[in-house]
Amino acid sequence: MTLQWIDNQKGIDRYRIDNGKGAMVEIITLGARITKLIVPDRAGDPTDVVLGYDDPAAYFDDTTYFGAIIGRVGNRIDKGRFALNGKTYALATNDGANHLHGGKVGFDHRVFKAMPLDSNKLELTYTSPDGEEGYPGEVKVTVVYTLEEDNALTIAYRATTSADTPLNLTNHAYFNLNGDALSVGGHIAQINADYLTDVDEGLIPHGELLNVKGTPFDFTSPKPIGRDWDGDHRLLKIARGGYDFNYVLSDSAKEVACVTGDKSGIVMTVLSDRPCVQFYTGNFLDGVEGKQIYPYHSAFCLETQGYPNAVNVPSFPSCILKAGETFSSTTTYRFGVK
Ligand code: GLA
User: CA 20 to 30 Å from 190, out of 40, 164, 251, 336?
Assistant: First the structure.
């Protein structure tokens, strides 16, 4: 196991953790992003399973959120507005009239401070000032990436705040388990969720849940990601053909989802203590030039999270982090082969 500082380009530090067993991850301080994640495929060949850019400086102009930590609040907030403790707040809007992934300059574009904790552990910290993107309170966030011996990457999140504020942290890695830039439609996916949060035309949940049974959204048993994504269902259209929905995880689910690359045999199991996961199939990708050229549907994301738009939906569990309390959460991406 080794943790190594690689370089600093335009103020962005890059680190590498290698577990000596075929898994390696590269992380940069801009957005605490995962820029490379190598795991062995079925033949033992090293395969980079995340989308990204070769040049760390390319992340300055990134609009896809490749590999980034998302905050303060991942996913959408209706009109960027909410009320808290008798005050109303207007956040930066950056997705039409709505707030997405922390606003105009979310955590994905903030420079974190990196500190190696061990030969397999990198800590990244960022202090989000009071009022940033319209949010109340100063938030101190810590993200620790740990690469395990058994080819699992764990992300541990911790945050505190000086005043009550909404918080919904996630990581926005885009995966292609075949290591190519072709459609992920043939990947086999299973998601441990019977419900998703229904959305309006702007992809905003307002409290209604949709039972996935018998719909194109049912991933309770493994199926090819692309089997049903061309359908006429209203929600598939709203998501631009494909998936971009918040799945509500079954109560007992520690195991969130399991996806297999149909060509590589690489199996990724996601474990988390969060209540939900955003399953997104790269419906906004349009030929982004990165390590490869990434077209529509060439990746999927499994963003573990709290309920989106929870600040405006009383029936959703609250996402407010209170002053004096500590938020902490863990998500693991474990890799194997089949
Ligand atoms: C999330 C959202 C998508 C899209 C991507 C980034 O997954 O739910 O609608 O905005 O991020 O492009």
Answer: 40
